[in-house]
Amino acid sequence: MKTWFHSWRAAIRIARRDAWRSKGRSALVLAMIALPILGVSALDLTYRSSELSPAERVDRTIGAADARFTDPGVGGVPVFQDPPGEMSTPAKDYEDEPWPSGSTDVTGVIPAGSTVLTDSEASAKLTTTHGLLLTEVRELKASDPIARGIMPLLEGRYPEKDDEVMATSHFLESSGLSVGSTLSARNFDRPYRIVGSYELPDSLNTDQVNALPGAFLAPYGKAVEKAGLPTPQVSVSYLVRHPGGFTWNTVKEINTKGVTVVSRAVLLDPPAKSEVPLFQKDGFGGYESSPGADAAALASLATVVGLAILEICLLAGPAFAVGARRSRRQLGLVGANGGARSHIRAIVLSGGLVIGVAAAVTGIVLALLLTLALQPVLEEAMGQRFGAFDIRPLELLGIALLAVLTGLLAAIVPAFTASRQTVLASLTGRRGIRRSSRVLPLIGLAALLLGGAVALFGSMVSEQVTLVAAGSALAELGVVAMTPALVGLFGRTGRWLPLSPRLALRDAVRNRGRTAPAVAAVLAAVAGTVAVSTYMASREAQNRAAYEATLPYGVAAAFVQEEGGRDVPAVREALQRNFPVDVRADVDRVSVGKPGCAPWGEGAGCGRYEVVVPPANECPLNATAPGGGNPAEQYTPEQRRKMLTDDWRCKESPSSGMWISDGGLVIGDAKLLQILGIDDPATVKALADGKIVAFNRALVDRNGTVGIKQITDIPAADKAAEQGRPAPGRISSLPAYQVPGDKKSYGVQVLMTPATAKAAGLSTVPMGVYASTDRLPDGEQRQKLDSDLAKLGSNVELHLEEGFVNENGIILLSLAIFAGLVTIGAAGIATGLAQADAEADLKTLAAVGAPPRVRRTLSGFQCGVVATMGVVLGSAAGLLPAVGLRLTEERDQLRWYEQNIAEGWSADTTPPDVPIVIPWETLAGLLVAVPLGAALLAALVTRSRGALARRAAT
After folding, report:
1. 245, 603, 811, 942 — which has fewest CB within 10 A?
2. Model confidence over 171-180: pLDDT tens digits?
3. pTM above 0.70, yes or no
4. Summary count for the chain: helices (H), strands (E)
C-alpha cells in the first residue's frame, strides 16, 4: 500500500508539472471539461434554490396564518381534498346525478375564537399612461401581521385609507405609473392613489393592485352593473389564525361541511398517502410515474450523459496522446530506472486526474459565483424569487467526480498506448510500427448491426421510442469504434490526390491514434445534428401538408366578445389605420339578454342562443340521446366507418374552421362574402333579399329554413342538456339559401344581414371585423396594431392568415452552426496536434526545397481531411434515429386514425401522411461548407515558414 501511494504521488507530481509546462494544451482540455461542469452545477444550484422548503412555501401562501379557508363551489356538500389544498372533489360519486354547484357559508365553518382576515380577488381594467390594462385587484389588509410574507413591500407603505392602493412592481412597469400616481377603472371613475409597491414572490410577472377590504370591488361591481355589464366574479378566501392550528383530522372534519383548507400544520407535516381519502378515489391516486417510466427516464439521462462524456473524451484524448508522445523520453527514463508499465500508465492517467480535478474546481466555483451574481436575472426569468441559496455538497461532489471521471477516461487510451512503448523506442524517439486493433472494428461492426436492429425493432414492431433511441445510440457507438478502420479505408483514396492533400491523408491514416478520436468527435456532433434536422424537416413537411388556413391568404380578422363589443369600433379603426386594408367588413353577433352579456350567457339577465340542427340532419354518431351516453356505442365499427365515409351528415363540412361564434352565426353584409372569396351572384342576391345564407347543409331543414333558438333560462337549459333533452327556448325560423358546392367559409356557417336579424327579433352587438389586405403587413405595422390594441385593455382575438410559416428554420440553422463549430474545433485540435507531432516532417519538406506554401496548404488539408471524414460518417450515422422515430410516429398515428374511424370520433377519413424528408440544405452545408471552411481557417492561421533545423535520425 505504501509503495502504491508513493508511486501515485510521484506520478501526480510529474503530471502536475507537465500540465503547468504545457499551459495551452492544459487550458484547452480544462475548458472542454469545465464548461459542461459549469452548466450542470449552475443548473443544480438554480433548481435547488428555486425549490422552496415547506416553511417558505407556507409563508408565501398563507403568510403568518394557520390556515386558508376556501369555498370549492360545490354547494356545501362534503368534499375530499389533498394535503396542499390544491385538488378537491365531492366525496360522493355523481355519475348518474347532476354535479353539485353553488356557494356555501365559509364563515360559519371557521372555529369560534379565531382571528380572520378576508382575501378577495377579481379583475378590472385599470387606467394607465398607455390606456387600459386588465389587472387583478386584491382586497387584503396587507399591513396585518397575519398577511406577513404574502406581499412583501418594496417601496412606500401599505394602504391605510379607502382611496389608497399599492401595486406590484410589474404592474407599475407595465402601466408606466409610479408610487404617488393615481389610477381608476373603466366604468368606475373613482380615483385611487398608489402609495406603495410590492411583489408576489411566487409570481413576479403578475399585474396586481391591492386595496383595503371593501374599498374597491364592491363599489366597482355596482358601477359596472349600472353600466349594463356583468359584475366581475369575486373569489373570496379567509386567512385564519386559531390557537392550536389545524391538524389533518381537523381539516377532514371541515371538509365534511363543503370547505377546503390550506393548513400550515398539514403542509409542514403532511399525512401519509393512505390517510388521504381523496387518493383512495378512482382517478385521484396521485400522478406518480410508473417504475418503467422512471427507468426509461433514468436510461435516457444516462445515455445523454454518457454521450456527452464520450464527446469530451474524443476531443480531449488526442491532447493527452500528444502530451504523452512529447514526454516519451521522460517516460523512457522512468522505464530505464526500473519503472514498470503500471508506472507509465499512472503518469499519463495522472494527467487526466489533475486536469479533471482542476476542471471540477474551476467549473463549480464559477457556477457558484455566476449563480449568485445572476440570481436577480434568473429570478426574473423564472418569475419567482428563490428561497435560501441552497448548496447541496453531495450533489456538487457527484458533479465533480463526473469531471474527474471524464479526465481519466480521456487519458486512459493514451496511457495504455504509452505503456506499450519499449524503453529503447521511447529514449531514441522512434515511433516503431503501429498496428491497428483488429478486434475493435469487429466489436464496432457488431454494435452497429445490433443497434440498427434494435432501432428498427423499436420503430416497426414494439413502437417504443426508448428502444429507437437506445438502438441508435448503440449504433453510433459502433461507428465510433469502427472509426480507425474507416479512416484506413479513406486512406485508399489518396493515390488520386495531389501532393498536399495526399500527404495530409497519409499522415491522418498513419496516426490513427490522433486522427480517429477527432473524427469520432466530429461524427458524434454531426450525427446528432443530422438526426434532429432530419426529424424536424420531416415534421415540417408533415405540418405543411396538414396545414389548413383559418382565413383566405392575406385576410385579417379581429373579434372582441366581452362587454357587449364596447371596444369593437376602436379595434376596427386600429386595424384600418395600421394595416394596408383593401376591403373591410364589419360583423356583429346575436346577443340574448342585456347588451353587455357575454356570448356564453353568464350573469344575471343574460342568455344564449343556438343554431338548431334539425333531427333529420343530425349524424347518428353525434345525435343527442335521451338520458345521455355515447350514441356511437350502438353501432359496430364497420357501421361507423360506413357512416363517416358515405353519410353526408357525418362528413366534415366545408364550413368548418376557426370558432367565431355559437353555431358559426355571423351578422354581416356582402363585403364579407367578397373577403371570403365567395363570388356566387345567387348567394349575394339571396343575402340582399333578406335570406339567411347557409354554408352548412345540416342546418337547413326540409322547408328551406334555419332555426335560431333564444335561450333565456340558463339553469333549465343546463339541466336539459344533462338529461339529453333539447334546451327550452323560443325558435325563430328564417328562410335560408343553401350555398351550392363546397365553398370554404372558414368557420362562418350562417350569415345574415343586420336588417334580417332585426326583422327576426334578434338583438345584435358589435363583434369584430374582417379585412382583406393589398399585401401582408410588415413587422412595423403589426407592432403598431398590437400597441393600439394593448391600450384598449380588451381581450382581442386577432388572426392574420399568412400561409404556413416554418417555425423551425432558426432551430435548423442553429443546429448546423453548432455542428459546424464543433467540427471546426475538433478538426482544429487534430490539426494543431498533427503539426506539433509532425514538425520533423515539415522540416524535412523545407530542407528538400518544398515551397513555403506547402506548409500552409498541408495544414489546411490536414484540417479538411479530419472534418470531411467526420462529417461524412456523422451524416450517415445520424439518419438512423430520425428514420426510426418517424416510422414509430407513422405507426402510432395510423393506429390512432383507425381507432378514430372505428369509434366514430372523427369525420376526417384521410389517412395520416408521415413523410421522411432529408434536409439537403443542412447536409450540403455540413458536407461542403464546413470542411472547406475548416481547411481555409487552418491554412490562414498557419505560418508559411517554420524554424529550419536539422532533423534527428530515427
Report:
1. 811
2. 999 888 999 9
3. yes
4. 30, 22
